[in-house]
Amino acid sequence: MKILLVDDDLFLCDMYATKFSEKGHEVEQAHNAESALAYLDSNEVDVVLLDMIMPGMTGVQLLTKMKEAQAVAQKTPPTFIILSNQSEESDKQAAAEAGAVGYIVKAELMPSGVVEEVEKLVKK
Description:
Elements: E1 2-6, H1 10-22, E2 26-30, H2 33-42, E3 47-50, H3 59-73, E4 79-84, H4 89-98, E5 102-105, H5 111-123
Parallel strand pairs: 1-2, 1-3, 3-4, 4-5
Keywords: Phosphoprotein
Organism: Candidatus Kaiserbacteria bacterium CG10_big_fil_rev_8_21_14_0_10_47_16
Protein name: Response regulatory domain-containing protein
């Protein structure tokens, strides 16, 4: 599975990228909304994992822009999953309404558990 991991926390990005790579997944990283949009403009991915709180654009705003861009750019749209420490029901609802198929709270799972949860969500 090819994954785009979008998070402004470089340490967490590297940690999750390592865990996904250990399970055989190909991972690319973007550390802000602009680089994520630019990457998707010329690359296809299976899954986009994105944080809710980033400079310049919220995760929901970025998700909305990505879905608009992907409707044209990619034959099979990626699965969008939120990976964030924001755990309010209103955040989860806004993400679902924007098109996220899952919402994972970072603090609730070990990194290996995040990998397992993403794999489950993609299989649905």
